[in-house]
Design goal:
It is a single chain. Helix content is about 60%, strand content about 0%. The chain contains 9 helices and no strands. The chain starts with 16 loop residues before the first helix and ends in a 17-residue tail after the last helix.
């Protein structure tokens, strides 16, 4: 693999420096993902923007976690699954939900399972989701707005998951205890 630098506010391209400072303020550190993305300032800015927009959707904390982790697990992202395990804990998401997502086992209720199913349909079918999948999602109590918000979440996670695969981003120290690899 190509070696990608882990930038800080000294080494980053000029346009990325304020973005890394924002990461430092928001997370109390510069996540390795952001340090890698800083090489391309537009990518880091886009990712930060999508992250903020997705957190501001109509989904609650459990649902946000289901979307993020369903995508992370499907993409077998060695970095994002541990990171979002830690983030879920900080958001107060139950271990039951987190463990079910990480282990690809049943979620605690049908509504969350419908969200995971629909999210995976969007990912696996590259957006070419059939009417039956959309109808099942809506029948589970979700809205057309949330259909589109899943696309927003997928867009965010494609950026991070793909970068982590290409750059082999090292997992941040606080998340190492949540190490994960996809079951065979």
């Amino acid at each position: 693999m190509t070696d990608f630098p882990l930038h800080d506010t000294d080494s980053a391209p000029e346009e990325s420096k304020p973005l890394l400072q924002k990461s430092q303020e928001n997370f109390g550190m510069i996540p390795s993902l952001h340090a890698v993305m800083a090489e391309a300032p537009g990518l880091l800015e886009g990712y930060q923007t999508l992250h903020a927009l997705f957190q501001d959707t109509s989904f609650d904390k459990d649902e946000i976690t289901v979307v993020w982790q369903s995508i992370n697990v499907e993409h077998a992202c060695h970095y994002c699954v541990p990171a979002h395990t830690g983030i879920a804990k900080s958001m107060g998401v139950s271990d039951e939900i987190t463990d079910a997502l990480r282990n690809e086992t049943p979620l605690p209720n049908d509504r969350l399972e419908a969200l995971r199913d629909f999210t995976l349909s969007v990912v696996r079918e590259r957006g070419n989701v059939d009417k039956a999948a959309v109808d099942a999602f809506l029948e589970a109590g979700f809205t057309k707005r949330q259909v589109l918000e899943v696309v927003l979440g997928v867009s965010q996670k494609v950026m991070s998951n793909y970068v982590n695969h290409i750059a082999e981003t090292p997992v941040d120290k606080p998340f190492e205890k949540f190490e994960w690899s996809k079951a065979a």
